[in-house]
TrEMBL record:
It comes from the Bacteria. It holds the Pfam family Phosphorylase. It is an enzyme of class 2 (transferase). It is found in: Cytoplasm. Phosphorylase is an important allosteric enzyme in carbohydrate metabolism. Enzymes from different sources differ in their regulatory mechanisms and in their natural substrates. However, all known phosphorylases share catalytic and structural properties. This is Alpha-1,4 glucan phosphorylase. Its cofactor is pyridoxal 5'-phosphate. InterPro entries: Glycg_phsphrylas, Glyco_trans_35, Pyridoxal_P_attach_site. Its main location: cytoplasm. PROSITE patterns: PHOSPHORYLASE. It comes from Rhodopseudomonas faecalis. Its EC number is 2.4.1.1. GO terms for molecular function: glycogen phosphorylase activity; pyridoxal phosphate binding. Keywords: Allosteric enzyme, Carbohydrate metabolism, Cytoplasm, Glycosyltransferase, Pyridoxal phosphate, Transferase.
């Protein structure tokens, strides 16, 4: 253990290249003048941001074109990542960091009288995703570039990202997220890359000269998909990949004949219908029109993407027999599941393949990532909607299912229930197409996203399919990119890591293990606490500016930031806050551990119960924060409009990470990894990747509570009434009674009746059942916090033992086990992995 000879935990800054600095200043000023049309005296901060971004983009494009040429010249296999969400956030500092140009640009802008941090705030946060799914896709794209895997990401260029959340009188309100309002300097439109995507109409069948049946689809509507490319830079700028997003337009944007009759709205109706496809992420699917638009979105981006990659393959190879050898297509969740039917359609209808050959190529090309065990979240579509929108695809699905059911019959003769369970068509609920089943049958590999999740897939949602196709399910535990979530989000901790672990930690996260040697060193602990405190001061400042609430940066920052959903159990967290509030009121003179409970997250616009939970959090916060007995003891804050940039401020400041989903319901989580990497202790259930985090950081450095997945199943089997656990817990009974009697809603005592009723009688998510265990675990956290050296040591060990959760490791596993593509030898972990062994 280091003692007085401990190093000075600081890294000296190398001198800047003055010639390079001069070149960058000149490039920024040139862009300001020639691309923006402003001189320095007229320019706004946003003008300077665009000029700097364009100057940086020029340097990225040179690398991009070079790496593209190299991969094509070498004939390397390519990966195509299809995702309806890409939560990429801000790209400016991300690209600067990965290109190694951050110090030069910061100095250049400073010399020009502009602050880099000010410009960073000018960039909109591209919220092209809802949460973990889209953020994972963004991390994976960055890791593929870092590992020098030739790859394309495919998605939709939404005009408006996930809604902008405003909290008004405690209620969530949704407003458009106009992320393209000032243009987007990162994207390059490809007007020459346009594909026709068809909907509706009818299908006719005929027999060709060789006696083979042919299907001809006569669509009723055509939409054009136009490509926009965004460069995704790998670490140290060695490789650049493309994120290709599709925008929708009508082939004829204006019916002049109709316009001339005076029907001005009708003249552009086709354009409005086409543009609705890319207008907004996740339209409300409560209405038939919303459901149809969701299906149109999914097919639109799948069809354009597959047409694009097939054309790219034909240009390089001249034939499609080798498609699976040169292209790996990853379906991120069920949203791109139509790729199974669409690729079959392209191979059979457009390129004349026979069914069996096309099916083998399709299965060998496609693989599917499942992200949920919730049956209701595995998309299904009514047959009637499918038949009206995609008649040819429904025919193909029927034939896929026929062959598939014949295989099921051969495997389990006469077992009608088994055939019904594995069928792509659900006959029970009004005849619907099961998209998860389609993706499973049409892929050669299906992966879960944590060890527990992958095993539960075999036992629950895909139990029968796993029996029919054993060996297809594999596990690929999620990961995060350390470049953004450590280096960018937490520069102070990064400097400490460099000083203690060596410069190699920037390239190989397994070097973090060397930090273990300093976990008990008093001097290092002090530096570690100082970094954390600075991050907490920054977050406290943000809370003060946005909410007008003053919080103590020395208090324990207890954080739960994620999509608002019942299974993620923000309700359990706020229920514990109520019980703690009552305890403080009962004993105001007791020496309470100061705590700030921080919430952030959006509820889906149509998810009324989740929006009611947001209202409860805000009402409880208003009561607690205005009570003089809680001053210096407890604060509750809900920070609105959660996004990637806000997470980059909150996560480095967190002391306690709330990962409290109902066991068996969170597939993986990636927020849990980001928090632990930044030195927060986890309080959580044995769910998702929490299990693997516990195994890596050590059970003594994480706080686990509550039922495990099997116990949850057993409890549910006994019923959902929670009267028994409420009777045994006076503090829980008191908290529920406070909610239902209007202690936090005196203007409307019955406002939260639905919540109190669920807590008592419909405890599906085990909020009441797990409450006592959670409350006791939180009091254990209080005791740990009171022992500062022990807490700091555990926090340091969390950081030191998180290397395995790098998305680089995840992508290597995909590359080796699913895609069969090589990764860069230079990107392989080195000495630190050996030391860890």
């Amino acid at each position: 253990m280091p003692g007085s000879s401990s190093p000075d935990f600081k890294v000296p800054k190398p001198p800047l290249d003055e010639l390079a600095l001069s070149e960058i200043k000149s490039a920024i000023v040139a862009k300001l003048t020639l691309a923006i049309g402003k001189n320095a005296g007229q320019a706004t901060k946003h003008d300077w941001y665009k000029a700097a971004a364009l100057a940086l983009r020029d340097r990225i494009v040179h690398r991009w074109l070079m790496t593209e040429k190299e991969s094509y010249d070498s004939g390397r296999k390519r990966v195509y990542y299809l995702s309806l969400e890409f939560l990429i956030g801000r790209l400016f500092t991300d690209a600067l960091n990965n290109m190694g140009l951050m110090p030069l640009f910061e100095a250049a802008l400073g010399d020009l009288g502009v602050g880099l941090s000010d410009l960073r705030n000018c960039e909109p946060d591209a919220a092209l995703g809802n949460g973990g799914l889209g953020r994972l896709a963004a991390c994976f794209m960055e890791s593929m570039a870092t590992l020098e895997i030739p790859a394309f990401g495919y998605g939709i260029r939404y005009d408006f990202g996930l809604f902008r959340q405003i909290i008004s009188q405690g209620w969530q309100q949704e407003y458009p997220d106009e992320w393209l309002g000032f243009g987007n300097p990162w994207e390059l439109q490809r007007p020459e890359v346009v594909y026709q995507v068809h909907f509706g109409g009818s299908v006719e069948h005929s027999v060709d000269a060789r006696g083979r049946e042919r299907a001809i689809w006569y669509p009723g509507e055509t939409v054009q998909a136009v490509a926009y490319d965004t460069p995704i830079v790998g670490w140290r700028g060695k490789h650049v990949n493309a994120l290709r997003l599709w925008s929708a337009r009508a082939p004829d944007p204006l019916r002049i004949d109709v316009f001339n009759t005076g029907d001005y709205l009708g003249a552009s109706a086709h354009e409005a219908r086409a543009e609705a496809i890319c207008k907004f992420l996740y339209p409300n699917d409560e209405s038939p029109a919303g459901r149809e638009l969701r299906l149109r979105q999914e097919y639109f981006f799948v069809s354009a993407s597959l047409q694009d990659l097939v054309q790219r393959h034909l240009n390089a190879e001249g034939q499609l027999r080798s498609l699976a050898k040169k292209a790996a297509v990853q379906l991120n969740d069920t949203h791109p599941s139509l790729a199974v039917a669409e690729l079959m359609r392209l191979l059979i209808d457009h390129h004349g393949m026979v069914w069996d050959d096309a099916w083998e190529i399709t299965k060998a090309t496609l693989s599917y990532t499942n992200h949920t065990l919730l049956p209701e979240a595995l998309e299904t579509w009514p047959i009637e909607l499918f038949e009206r929108s995609l008649p040819r695809h429904l025919e193909i699905i029927y034939r896929i299912n026929e062959v598939h059911l014949n295989h099921a019959e051969a495997r389990c003769p006469g077992d009608i229930d088994f055939r019904a369970a594995v069928s792509v068509i659900d006959e029970k609920g009004g005849r619907r197409v099961r998209m998860g089943h389609l993706a499973f049958i049409g892929s050669h590999r299906i992966n879960g996203v944590s060890a527990m999740h992958s095993e539960l897939m075999k036992e629950t949602v895909f139990h029968d399919l796993h029996h029919l196709y054993p060996g297809r399910i594999t596990n690929k535990t999620n990961g995060i990119t350390f470049r953004r979530w450590l280096m960018l989000a937490n520069p102070g901790l990064t400097e400490l890591a460099r000083a203690t672990c060596g410069e190699g930690v920037l390239d190989d996260p397994t070097y973090l293990v060397r930090m273990e040697d300093y976990a008990g060193d008093a001097a290092f602990q002090q530096q570690f606490r100082q970094v954390k405190h600075r991050n907490k001061v920054a977050l406290a400042k943000l809370i003060g500016e946005r909410l007008g609430i003053k919080v103590n940066a020395s208090a324990l920052f207890d954080v739960q930031i994620k999509r608002i959903h019942e299974y993620k159990r923000q309700l359990l967290n706020v229920l514990e806050a109520i019980a703690l509030y009552h305890a403080i009121k009962d004993e105001p003179q007791r020496d309470w551990v100061p705590r700030v409970k921080i919430f952030a997250g959006k509820a889906a616009a149509s998810y009324r119960y989740a929006k009611l939970i947001i209202k409860l959090i805000n009402d409880v916060a208003e009561t607690i924060n205005s009570d003089p007995d809680t001053v210096g003891r407890l604060k509750v804050v809900f920070i609105p409009d959660y996004n990637v940039s806000l997470a980059e401020v909150i996560i480095p400041a967190a002391d306690l990470s709330e990962q409290i989903s109902t066991a068996g319901m969170e597939a993986s989580g990636t927020g849990n990894m980001k928090f632990a990497l930044n030195g927060a202790l986890t309080i959580g259930t044995l769910d998702g990747a929490n299990i693997e985090i516990r195994d890596n950081v050590g059970p003594e450095n994480i706080a686990i509570f509550g039922m495990d997945a099997l116990e949850v199943v057993q409890r549910r089997a006994q019923g959902l009434d929670a009267t028994d656990v409420i009777t045994r817990s006076p503090r829980l009974a008191r908290a529920i009674r406070a909610i239902e009697t209007g202690e936090f809603s005196r203007d409307d005592p019955g406002r939260f009746a639905a919540i109190s009723h669920a807590l008592r009688h419909l405890d599906h998510y085990m909020v009441s059942a797990d409450f006592e265990s959670y409350y006791d675990c939180q009091r254990g956290i209080d005791a740990r916090w009171s022992n500062s050296p022990a807490w700091t040591r555990a926090a340091i060990l969390n950081v030191a033992r998180m290397a395995w959760f790098s998305s680089d490791r995840t992508i290597r596993e995909y590359a080796e086990d699913i895609w069969n593509v090589p990764t860069s030898p230079a990107s392989q972990p080195t000495l630190a992995r050996q030391a860890q062994r």
